[in-house]
Amino acid sequence: MSGIVVIFDFDKTIVDCDSDNWVIDELGFTDLFNQLLPTMPWNSMMDRMMMELHTQGVTIEDIEKVLHRIPIHSRIIPALKEAHALGCDMRIVSDANVFFIETILKHLGIREYFSEINTNPGYVNEEGRLRILPYHDFNKAPHGCSLCPPNMCKGLIIDKIQNSMYTEDNKRFIYLGDGAGDYCPSLRLKERDFMMPRKNFPVWDLICKDPSLLKAEIHGWSDGEELEQVLLHLINKINMDINSQFISPDCKLHILSVSAPEALPKVLSVRP
Ligand SMILES: [Mg+2]
Ligand SMILES: [Zn+2]
């Protein structure tokens, strides 16, 4: 483990569109969706749309087939693979749902790169209908964050991840996202962390209003190619910082065994 936690939004960050819109549009339900949208929150709307799809004979297999051909930039999978190989702990925080995300990641063969997926619950019920539920039960316990939609505050999820790591002080976070929902978590990042907003998308515009509100360093990206370059650059930079500050017990033994002080930098430089 490198001590780096990389947190990815999913829609328009890992895949190059919104998975909810993709399914609705590809199955020909856009008009109904647009009609119903003003009447309820997005997450409740998706559950309702899954009922409409089921009623009109769309099967789970039909939905899976559409998810399997979702657009993704050609550099995203190599970027994820490399970040994983460099020892990053990679997690997803998304306002899509677990059924869509798992179906896509498994199809692409990249599910195992992620240690955790934080998203809205989703499951296929006994009638073969997909149910989509809110991450926070907003009727019973509203999350109270005014920046976020009622079903999910990504900032609270970041708090939970940060608190779950008792060696948190050594962990460095990199957060990637595009949407307005990625703004709240960007405010939770610390000085040693990095925010990677997608340029000219809602989170970018929100950050640009007053970048000084963020403690983390800001590094924009515009497409999968730039995402790969910026992300791998940051991971390598952090790893170099860590290597120059931190000496493992193994390494200490090495150092003890060398007598000349000038040999020290050499010993450090062989660390991966
Ligand atoms: Mg997104
Ligand atoms: Zn929030």
Overall geometric form: globular
Q: Could you give the order of strands across the largest sheet?
A: 3-2-1-6-7-8
Number of separate strands: 8
For the largest beta-sheet, the strand count, sense and barrel status come to:
6 strands, parallel
The computed structural class is alpha/beta
Q: Keywords, please?
A:
binds zinc ion; magnesium; 272 residues; globular; disordered C terminus; alpha/beta; binds magnesium ion; HAD_sf; metal-binding; HAD-like_sf; 6-stranded parallel β-sheet; metal ion binding; 12 helices
Structure description:
The chain is an alpha/beta fold. 44% of the residues lie in helices and 14% in strands. It contains twelve helices and eight strands. The strands form two sheets. Strands 3-2-1-6-7-8 form a six-stranded parallel sheet, with helices on both faces. α5 packs parallel to α10 (224-245). The longest helix has 22 residues, at 224-245. The two termini are 12 Å apart. The relative contact order is 0.14. Mean pLDDT is 90; it is low at 249-272. Magnesium ion (MG) binds at residues 9, 11-13, 177-179. Zinc ion (ZN) binds at residues 145, 147-148, 153, 155, 184.
Topology of helices and strands:
Elements: E1 4-8, H1 19-26, H2 30-36, H3 42-55, H4 60-68, H5 76-85, E2 89-97, H6 98-108, E3 114-120, E4 122-124, E5 130-132, H7 154-164, E6 172-177, H8 183-188, E7 194-197, H9 202-209, E8 217-218, H10 224-245, H11 249-257, H12 264-269
Parallel strand pairs: 1-2, 1-6, 2-3, 6-7, 7-8
Antiparallel strand pairs: 4-5
Helix pairs in contact: 5-10
The protein binds magnesium ion and zinc ion.
Zinc ion binds next to loops.
